[in-house]
Amino acid sequence: MSLGYADRLKNKRNLGGQLGAKEYHQSFDEIREGVKSLTTWVADSKRVFVFTGAGISTACGIPDFRGPNGIWTLRKKKIPIPADFTPFEYAKPSFTHMAIAALVAAGKVPYVCSQNVDSLHLWSGVPRRQLAELHGNCFAERCTKCRTEYARDFQMETVDFRPSGRLCSQPGCDGPLVDNILDWDTPLPEDELEEAVRQAEEADLALVLGTSLQIQPANEIPTLTRDEGGKMVIVNLQKTPKDRKANLIIRSRVDLVMALLMQELGLQVPPYIRTERLVVEHHLSELKAEAEGLEAAATAAAAAVAALPASSDGIQRVLTIRVRSRHGPGCPLPMVESLRISVTATTADCSDKNAGGIGRNDNEPSAVQESGGCLATTNAGAAVWAPTSSNVMTSPSPTNCSGAGYFSHDFIGVPLGIRWVRCTLQVRLVKWADQGKRDITLHHSIDLSQLTSKAQADWQDRCAGTAEGSGGGQVTNEREAATVESYGAVPGNGNDATSSATTRVKNSSGDGDRPTTTGAYDHTHTFVSQEVQYDPASVISTFLANPPPVDLPKAPEKKRKGASSTNALAAVPTRVSLRLASASHKRQPVSETTSSDMGTVDSETEN
Q1: Do residues 231 and 225 make contact, with C-beta atoms less than 8 angstroms apart?
Q2: Is 537 exposed, middle or buried (0-12, 13-18, 19+ CB in 10 A)?
Q3: Which one, out of 12, 50, 250, 296, has a CA that is 20 to 30 A from the CA of 125?
Q4: Which among 89, 110, 109, 91 is positioned nearest to 99, based on CA atoms?
């Protein structure tokens, strides 16, 4: 998994389980025969319980923990960890993720239980209500009061349920939000563990994908299906301590098995389309200021402001444009590497295209009058504002995923005769975006006259003790919905951008004889940053072009009756194991845990 997540966990000498266990590979014919049996069982099952581990994410460029090249394995050997892994924020779901989502959508898989914290199941389209995330989610935070969970597109900076500094947006709550990630000694979430146990017991088939099943108590969950009369299939390159309970073991990478399964079932795997949303805040300030006040406030821009006309009351206008995350002010923008904001004034004719709105999309070319950086007039005598722009603003640290809280620029000295302003955003995305989607240009227009009139009206209302926003709703920032929100496989194409706008009005009181009137509204741009089409035939042909050498484990030796292992490590009873032991009086004990197979810890973060 991601180094950032691993580094946030407590230092632990005994990591539990075996590190760097040997990986085995069956031949393609053996894999295909196994998948045919699996296909029959899936087709005959009403309920398939899927249990996943870090092995389904390695194809996404995310290292596992205990594999031959896993993070814990390399650290124990004091081998430098490769730097070419994919950070969580930019990972795309693997074929297996999307195949599981297809099975969920088809009604075959009512529930998925995962040990992973990378959020890729959610991003693939698996609904949160049908997913147990036993170790949490690096992209989620939860309210400590009402338990509402929020899904983000940036990682939490802490683990073990520490405050993030954000507050719950549910009406009447405002409880503090905490990260939703378990540390080594954090108990598994009771509600999700209980539901996973119930779903496993009721399933006809448990499909275990990409996990060595070494750490208790989660490794017992899929065996409940077998104990209740169902079947269990394990797809993993390494041996597991639960192999003897499996009806079928396939030694293969999970993507190949799932590609063959999708072909046999005739199920189509949906595409993955990641969409980004940028919220653009516009603040128009009307300042009644003395010349020395302007000079002090505008600093380097004072000369430009002085050249622009003011009203008879000496009012100067400042247009502030801020681009921020959809999750609220101060939240990172992990996909944005740099951004440039430009504004130009449009002619009065442009406003007729959207006479009833305060802002509009303007992705088509429009009539723009530009003239060398200063105020100019058209042939009709209308004042226009020459093009002006910010510098290219770069995110402080796009490569470590912290990103910028927001990008902001003040355009000082907006002429009073200007009504429509066209805003252009030139956005450069990080290298993990699709190559053809890294450079995005977004446009929209702002009706300053309506914004100004709303601000002035609100100024009067505020003086009377009220402040209302346009459209009946006050918007102070973009708050999340009551349910978890995630990226999913949704319709979209290329770099087409869509936008929506909400209006908000706010005031800041003046200082003495320098009153300030401010109107503002938010405009949201949506565009695609990543898109993947999944083809089973491509996965299969890639494997056949360079198959790994066939290498199978030796068959386990049969124990002599009454023999016991001096190296046997007694498993510490857990809530799940105790429930498993009492679930059926017919259950026979299985001795399969040895010191070389398994380490017992209070709670697991194997992923």
Answers
A1: yes
A2: exposed
A3: 250
A4: 109
Question: Distance between CA 177 and CA 148 in Å, rounded?
Answer: 9
Residue-wise DSSP of 122-140: HHHT--GGGEEETTEEEEE
Closest CA to 507 of 549, 434, 455, 548: 455
188: Cα within 13 Å, side-chain hemisphere: 32
DSSP 146: T
Strand partners, 530: 274
Residues 148-196 have pLDDT tens digits of 999 999 999 888 888 999 999 999 999 999 998 887 778 888 999 999 9
Which amino acid would we find at residue 475? Answer: V
Q: What is the pLDDT of residues 37-65, one digit of tens each?
A: 999 999 999 999 999 998 999 899 887 76
Answer for the pair 403, 334: CB distance below 8 angstroms, yes or no: yes
76: part of which helix (H) or strand (E)?
helix 71-76
Burial of 195 (0-12, 13-18, 19+ CB in 10 A): middle
Query: From the CB of residue 326, how many other CB atoms can be counted at a distance below 10 Å?
Result: 20
Q: Are 594 and 568 in contact (CB under 8 A)?
A: yes
Give the CA count within 13 Å in the CB-facing half-sphere of 278. Answer: 34
- Report the distance separating Cα 106 and Cα 101, nearest Å: 9
555: left (phi over 0), alpha (psi -120 to 50) or beta: beta
Q: Are 474 and 310 in contact (CB under 8 A)?
A: no
CB-based contacts of 49, cutoff 8 Å, min separation 6: 109, 110, 111, 113, 199, 200, 203, 205, 206, 207, 222, 225
Could you please report the per-residue DSSP string of 287-321? EE--HHHHHHHHGGGHHHHHTS---TT-EEEEEEE
What is the spatial distance between Cα 511 and Cα 285, in angstroms, rounded to a whole number?
14
| DSSP 8-state code for residue 551 | B
Mean pLDDT throughout 397-410? 61
Core vs surface per residue 246-256: b (16+ CB within 10 A) or e: bebbbbbbbbb
Residue 143 assigned ligand-binding role: yes
What is the pLDDT, as a whole number, of residue 85?
Answer: 82
**Residue 168 counted as an annotated binding residue:** yes
* Tens digit of each residue's pLDDT (9 = 90 or more) over 130-146: 999 999 999 999 999 99
Residue 570 CB neighbour total at 10 angstroms? 7
pLDDT at 229 exceeding the cut of 60: yes
Cβ atoms < 10 Å from Cβ of 184: 18
DSSP-derived pairing of the beta strands 336-345 and 315-325: unpaired
Which amino acid, 327? H
- Strands (DSSP E) contained in 430-487 are 439-447
List 477's β-bridge partners, or say none. none
Show the 3-state SS of 249-280. Answer: EECCCHHHHHHHHHHHHCCCCCCEEEEEEEEE
The single-letter code of the amino acid at 302 is A
In angstroms, rounded to a whole number, what is the distance separating the alpha carbons of residues 41 and 314? 80
Partners of 25 in beta bridges: 551
Q: What is the pLDDT of residue 485?
A: 41
The Cα 489–Cα 468 span in angstroms is 38
Shortest CA distance to 122 belongs to which of 530, 481, 485?
Answer: 485
Catalytic residue ranges: 135
